[in-house]
């Protein structure tokens, strides 16, 4: 199946350091250095670790903070916080990480004792440890010992407000019972399991600093595009891996967990089979060198032959240490060709030459997939395109697992929709003349009919629009339109978005929730389907205007050739809209999932599409009364047009969904009458 997402980067290479040696993202974070609680949301390779160094040093030197504790999810990531020369580039202090208090080094036996010693020391300033060491040590100490300390949590998405998440509980206790400052850093402020990272009251105390994928990529010098695609397999993934693996591309292959349905159950046999597939029928002998790297003779697609260097991170035996050491010291693209991994080479892993992230099987964590994609999107000389491919099981109508496969397919596609959003240009909203959030967006949409000045909660919601949109697209129940072609903007505006806003910002007034729902529907729509904002002179001459109502007079340009070069336009495929003309009715006429649906329906056969849509219908039958109420106007329109009620089981997906909504409304009305009768 072709790629669902194809993004071209209009790179500007503007990533210049300022007088203090800070890149743009780091300077943005440093502007908020006096805030006690800072949440940094920025993509891989944007410089989050150094941003932390700048802010932490300022807090030590200028803000009365006595100590810094940095916690990372695993020891291998600790190297990002090693001692660093910052003064040579203009900053007023260097970052010094003492070996004794670097608890991510091998050999520290009593980490908890060293941690306690650090807290009681008058002179030591910086400690580095894992999340596990941090939470386990703090179980047994007085939280007040963390007063006048700054705590930095890297990869913050590992936290959640769940009672079972000990790190989340520790942070809540620290915020409640000490004056410690907290700096949280993440490349994806959402969790794959859909749990909230923080409760709403704690989250409201953080100053969010966002540096988007779009901004990061704009500063790239070499990488020009990213594609995200999906391919189906039958009879086991090894049967078609060779069809999607291009051995001429630097590739990380992630095989499925041994306990998953996609796995054969024997990771070593899978590794060996993949080595054979990489060889592409070459009869030469596969060997391993002194670094544990496999040397695989291969026939390349052009007919030539070459020995490919393959790293095995599946084998967790003694040789893995040698392989990891080799990977840390790679200095050239010629040093490695392919990595085969299972649980490694994801978060925090850096192989800048990677061009293709090939993941086999469904991954339940959206965060994990975004991290994997991040392995391929590093800027690197000689790399112009990055590719993510997910190889997943094809739904089978005769299988009892059809529902499982379709649900996995929806979840996988949600990654595409999310990446489409995070790679889109940033939109600012101007409400009653006031620009909400940072004034560095790529374009802005004015909302002049907001009834009153927006509340602080409303402003915060708009500032954190990336988080809201990520949560909206991280829920497969909302994504049936991708596989059926139907789109119900009113359900999003009147149910999905308001529900999330009430949960995230309980202080919002209902009138503001209504307005904000329109704002987020707009933001989500204008970023979907490969849409982008361009000046009029960048519109293809043969592009046509998107006209909301063909019966109304239209006075704009009739083609791209007539577009004003000084105006901003939203370009979607072969159609364009002037940004100044965007309004909620026009937004409702645009289906943000249309492009994904067209790709899927065009590239899979009729039988498979019917299987998929049947499973989606079954999922839709579990509809809430709020969703049904949102569809009531559509039901009335259907009744007026067809002179009958919509029928369950109709071959028309939209009619079927309206029929389910009508049934739900009948049941709700009957239950309400019964309740009134019993009370009266």
TrEMBL record:
The lineage of its organism: Bacteria, Pseudomonadati, Pseudomonadota, Gammaproteobacteria, Vibrionales. InterPro entries: Helicase/UvrB_N, Helicase_ATP-bd, P-loop_NTPase. It holds the Pfam family ResIII. It comes from Vibrio eleionomae. One of its GO terms (molecular function) is DNA binding. Coiled coil: none annotated. Residues 29-207 form the Helicase ATP-binding domain. This is ATP-dependent helicase. Signal peptide: none annotated. The keyword Transcription does not apply. Keywords: ATP-binding, Helicase, Hydrolase, Nucleotide-binding.
């Amino acid at each position: 199946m072709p790629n669902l997402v194809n993004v071209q980067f209009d790179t500007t290479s503007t990533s210049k350091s300022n007088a203090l040696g800070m890149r743009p993202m780091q300077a943005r974070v440093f502007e908020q250095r006096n805030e006690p609680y800072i949440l940094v949301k920025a993509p891989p390779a944007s410089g989050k670790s150094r941003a932390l160094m700048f802010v932490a040093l300022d807090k030590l030197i200028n803000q009365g903070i006595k100590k810094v504790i940095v916690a990372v999810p695993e020891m291998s990531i600790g190297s990002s916080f090693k001692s660093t020369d910052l003064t040579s580039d203009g900053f007023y202090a260097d970052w010094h990480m003492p070996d004794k208090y670097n608890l991510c080094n091998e050999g520290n036996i009593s980490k908890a004792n060293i941690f306690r010693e650090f807290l009681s020391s008058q002179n030591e300033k910086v400690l580095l440890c894992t999340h596990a060491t941090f939470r386990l040590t703090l179980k047994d100490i007085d939280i007040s010992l963390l007063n006048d300390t700054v705590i930095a949590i890297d990869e913050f998405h590992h936290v959640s407000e769940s009672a079972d998440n000990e790190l989340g509980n520790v942070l809540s206790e620290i915020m409640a019972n000490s004056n410690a400052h907290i700096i949280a850093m993440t490349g994806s402020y959402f969790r794959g399991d859909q749990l909230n990272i923080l409760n709403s009251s704690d989250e409201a105390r953080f100053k969010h600093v966002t540096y988007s994928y779009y901004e990061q990529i704009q500063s790239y010098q070499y990488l020009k595009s990213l594609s995200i695609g999906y391919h189906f397999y039958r009879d086991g993934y090894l049967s078609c891996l060779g069809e999607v693996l291009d051995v001429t591309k630097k590739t990380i292959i992630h095989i499925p967990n041994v306990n998953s349905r996609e796995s054969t159950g024997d990771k070593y046999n899978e590794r060996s089979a993949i080595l054979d597939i990489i060889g592409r029928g070459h009869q030469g002998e596969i060997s391993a060198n002194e670094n544990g790297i496999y040397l695989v003779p291969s026939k390349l697609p052009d007919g030539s032959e070459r020995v490919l260097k393959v790293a095995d991170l599946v084998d967790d035996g003694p040789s893995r240490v040698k392989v990891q050491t080799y990977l840390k010291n790679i200095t050239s693209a010629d040093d490695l060709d392919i990595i085969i991994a299972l649980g490694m080479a994801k978060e925090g892993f850096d192989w800048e030459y990677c061009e293709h992230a090939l993941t086999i099987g469904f991954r339940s964590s959206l965060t994990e997939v975004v991290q994997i994609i991040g392995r391929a999107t590093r800027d690197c000389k000689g790399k112009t395109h990055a590719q993510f491919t997910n190889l997943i099981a094809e739904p089978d109508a005769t299988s009892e697992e059809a529902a499982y496969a379709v649900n996995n397919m929806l979840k996988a596609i949600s990654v595409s929709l999310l990446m489409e959003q995070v790679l889109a240009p940033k939109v600012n909203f101007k409400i009653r003349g006031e620009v909400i959030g940072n004034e560095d967006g790529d374009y802005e949409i004015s909302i002049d009919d907001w009834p009153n000045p927006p509340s602080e909660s409303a402003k915060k919601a708009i500032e954190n629009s990336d988080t809201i949109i990520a949560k909206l697209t991280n829920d497969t129940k909302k994504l049936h339109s991708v596989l059926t072609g139907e789109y119900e903007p009113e359900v999003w505006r009147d149910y999905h978005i308001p529900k999330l806003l009430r949960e995230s910002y309980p202080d919002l007034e209902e009138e503001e929730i209504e307005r904000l729902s329109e704002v987020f529907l707009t933001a989500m729509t204008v970023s979907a389907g490969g849409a982008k904002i361009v000046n009029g002179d960048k519109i293809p001459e043969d592009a046509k205007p998107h006209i909301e109502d063909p019966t109304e007079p239209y006075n704009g340009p009739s083609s791209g050739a007539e577009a004003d070069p000084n105006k901003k336009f939203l370009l979607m495929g072969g159609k364009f809209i002037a940004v100044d003309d965007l309004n909620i009715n026009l937004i409702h006429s645009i289906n943000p999932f249309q492009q994904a649906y067209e790709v899927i329906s065009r590239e899979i056969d009729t039988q498979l599409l019917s299987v998929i849509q049947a499973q989606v219908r079954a999922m839709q039958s579990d509809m809430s009364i709020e969703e049904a109420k949102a569809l009531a106007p559509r039901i009335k329109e259907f009744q007026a047009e067809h002179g009958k009620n919509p029928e369950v089981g109709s071959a028309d997906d939209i009619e079927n969904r309206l029929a389910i909504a009508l049934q739900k409304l009948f049941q709700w009305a009957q239950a309400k009458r019964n309740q009134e009768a019993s009370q009266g």
